[in-house]
Write a sequence for this structure.
């Protein structure tokens, strides 16, 4: 079975304009190079034997290292000697907040050349870095979002600030690494007088109620057009779903269950609490009760449920 393209659904409509919001081109070489660290900004020339009279100069850091830090303005994401390219999410996504709690992100990160591995950012391309580099669904670039982690015993995911939630990254589901994005369940969770688009878990200036009901046939374009939060597979067809949080509110419609899409094949037999998920139709195994463009499977920890291929 093909993995459901989670990041594609999340980022298809909301993040398509981020490149415009960035205010210019960011030097992505800061996230490149054999060690993920890019070029060293300090002077590598050989110093003279008598270096005592050389004035002190700041040694530039290749990364800000602030992705995931709570913020109010872009300045909160900058560090002395850093490249100062990290920005506050309420600035990057403006006029929307999307996140209930504003955090530092990178508007761009090193090119993601494959979608079957975790790529880290705001540091070297390894687990020591605070961010995960994800591609926009539109193919216009990448964004560095805060990293979160979760175990195989069903414990709570860690790493997300405030009311922001952790999504499992389907690019490499075996490693227990995800990303923090959105997570509101009511207007009171949002800042800046924004409202909660409950079916997507995103803080926005104005709510657009879904037109199609949960369980109705839909396509990827329905997500882009805010017709409904479409749970779709590689064929871009599926059924209308809704944002949910495992083990908490909001609850799913009767007959539906909150699935964080954690694959059993990698040892996830119990869902981690507090993870972001999609309301999926429960099924008994015969598949006859599944919505259009989906079939009854038991590949995820919350199964059996109806998943688009």
């Amino acid at each position: 079975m093909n993995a459901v393209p989670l990041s594609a659904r999340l980022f298809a409509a909301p993040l398509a304009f981020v490149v415009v919001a960035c205010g210019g081109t960011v030097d992505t070489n800061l996230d490149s190079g054999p060690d993920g660290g890019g070029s060293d900004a300090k002077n590598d020339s050989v110093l003279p034997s008598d270096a005592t009279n050389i004035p002190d100069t700041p040694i530039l850091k290749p990364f800000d290292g602030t992705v995931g830090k709570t913020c109010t303005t872009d300045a909160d994401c900058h560090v002395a000697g850093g490249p100062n390219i990290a920005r506050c999410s309420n600035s990057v996504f403006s006029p929307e907040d999307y996140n209930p709690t504003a955090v530092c992100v990178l508007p761009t990160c090193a090119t993601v050349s494959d979608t079957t591995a975790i790529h880290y950012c705001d540091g070297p391309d390894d687990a020591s870095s605070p961010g995960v580099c994800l591609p926009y669904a539109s193919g216009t670039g990448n964004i560095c979002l805060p990293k979160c982690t979760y175990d195989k015993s069903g414990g709570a995911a860690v790493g997300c600030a405030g009311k922001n939630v952790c999504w499992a990254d389907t690019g490499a589901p075996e490693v227990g690494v995800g990303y923090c994005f959105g997570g509101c369940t009511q207007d009171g969770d949002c800042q800046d007088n924004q409202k909660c688009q409950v079916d997507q878990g995103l803080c926005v200036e104005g709510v657009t109620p879904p037109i199609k009901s949960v369980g109705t046939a839909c396509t990827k374009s329905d997500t882009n057009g805010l017709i409904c939060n479409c749970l779709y597979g590689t064929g871009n067809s599926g059924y209308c779903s809704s944002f949910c949080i495992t083990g908490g509110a909001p609850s799913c419609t009767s007959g539906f269950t909150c699935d964080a899409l954690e694959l059993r094949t990698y040892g996830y037999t119990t869902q981690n609490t507090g993870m972001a998920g999609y309301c999926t139709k429960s099924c008994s195994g015969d598949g006859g009760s599944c919505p259009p463009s989906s079939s009854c499977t038991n590949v995820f920890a919350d199964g059996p449920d109806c998943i688009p291929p």
